[in-house]
Design a protein that fits this description.
Elements lengths: L3 E2 L10 E6 L24 E5 L5 H8 L14 H12 L6 E7 L5 E12 L2 E10 L8 H16 L4 E4 L6 H9 L3 E9 L5 E10 L4
Parallel strand pairs: 6-7
Antiparallel strand pairs: 1-2, 2-8, 3-4, 4-5, 5-6, 7-9, 8-9
């Protein structure tokens, strides 16, 4: 496969696609028959709340923490966090960001959202999620992302949803596989500026159109 060169910027994450390369499976299956894609088959362990003005402390724990941003080029500083908080509060055009609330404890434990992205000559949804370390490994990210997928399907704006986890982020790639995403290829993004990260491109059909 020849590498393709594109220059599109993602307004939500600041990604700029540099190149695509031949898909690298890295031990991840491209499709899992019978994967869980219905909300009805997921445990009801989370509540999604629209991102609000009081959620900056949680955002600091997510995007301002070195452990949480290990695969994202490192933590953001105070100014970048405030800019991100403002974007999250004022999303429009079907773009959504939610606080993940653990139903059992009532605690805000992460974020999940989706937004429109120009990708391969069409508009798609990109989805992303984060869960604070002490609540990881409980299925919270899977349940929250499944709920977000259902909301995106109801919006019926785009045919496909994509996720772009770092190739070295095994848990996030496993979530994509479990939720029925298909591995398409490997891409390189510049995020943040000056930092190249290699990601798997996972795709999920949202409708039959």
């Amino acid at each position: 496969m020849l590498a393709l060169s594109v220059q599109r910027r993602n307004h939500m994450r600041g990604f700029r696609t540099i190149t695509t390369v031949e898909p690298r499976l890295l031990g991840v299956r491209t499709h899992m028959p019978g994967a869980v894609t219905s909300l009805r088959r997921m445990p009801a362990t989370v509540i999604l709340q629209p991102w609000g003005s009081g959620d900056l402390p949680l955002l600091k724990r997510l995007m301002g923490d070195a452990r949480m941003t290990e695969h994202l080029g490192g933590p953001e500083g105070p100014d970048k966090l405030r800019e991100r908080q403002d974007r999250y509060e004022h999303l429009k055009g079907g773009n959504r960001m939610f606080k993940i609330v653990d139903a059992a404890s009532g605690a805000g434990v992460g974020s999940v959202g989706f937004w429109t992205k120009a990708w391969r000559d069409e508009e798609v949804y990109e989805v992303g999620w984060m869960v604070v370390p002490e609540f990881q490994g409980r299925g919270i990210a899977v349940a929250a992302t499944a709920r977000a997928i259902e909301l995106a399907r109801r919006d019926d704006r785009h045919r496909f949803m994509h996720a772009f986890p770092n190739v070295d982020n095994a848990p996030s790639n496993a979530i994509c596989r479990r939720l029925g995403f298909e591995l398409i290829e490997v891409c390189e993004f510049e995020f943040p500026a000056g930092h190249l990260m290699t990601c798997n491109d996972w795709r999920l059909g949202l409708n039959a159109g």
